[in-house]
Predict the 3D structure of the following.
Amino acid sequence: MKRFYAVLFLIALGASAVMAQQSYTVQFTTSPPTIDGVVGPTEYTTTEPLAGAFRLLRTTPPGSPSPETIQWAAVWDLSALYIYAVGNYTTTGTGGTAFTGGELTADDALATGDDIELFLDPNRDGEPNTAGDSNDDSYQIIIPLFPGTGTRDSTNPGPPFFYTQARTNALFGDNVSPPWNPVGVVWSRSVTNGVGFTLEIKIPFAALNASSVADSGLLLTGPPANGDQWLFNMSRIASSGNLPLWNYHAGDANPTTGAGAFFAERPHGIITFAGRPVVTAARDFQLFQ
């Protein structure tokens, strides 16, 4: 009997380890990357290894490993967060190896087919990063993935287009006032069928300016400090039908099977800012603007 319970304990311990919250340390850089869809050999060089180990949303806990390899890295300076992601969409299955969908018709038109999705919450109000909590705030950025290349600054008209929303205490929609229209976001994508994708994105801290009367947890008033922690997740809708997610969660609808889960639900992963040099407050604010 003791052996039986020991086996159960080891199984539970293994499942707990697999479902452990993902974390990543974002290191400061004095040489910010050029957002051009080509990742230079030193642009994202830090002591932090590439993040990965994506699991599939809406699969039974602890989540089925993604058959598609997706990895990402990030750095920051006083003005922005820089993220790049790569994926090798070469696995077979429904949809084959072809990225599907087409260019959006305008910014904030809902993407169809393949995409990459980012969820960020500076969490200035300290909301819990736990399942079963309806107070889920997030910035959401969706970049469609279809064959070809494209680079864009959000201050200029598209294409390529992208989709952005900010929400408080909700999983869908843009319920902040005024609606979130980030300025200065720059992204570049390169997508090749049978090979995969490369994505780079620059998110200025000053662009994370959503606020509302009910909740100010999304609003930044300056760049991060060393040790600041944000809630973060990266996910993808794949034309294979898979839903890879960096920090797996089972969702609140049916946590025993993972059915009915949504990307915006928590818990999300944690990113921690580090490596920032000592500078004056006045210089901080100048660069932040």
Summary: Residues 1-18 have pLDDT under 50 and may be disordered. The two ends are 65 Å apart (CA to CA). The CA atoms of residues 84 and 200 lie 4 Å apart. The first strand starts at residue 23 and ends at 28.
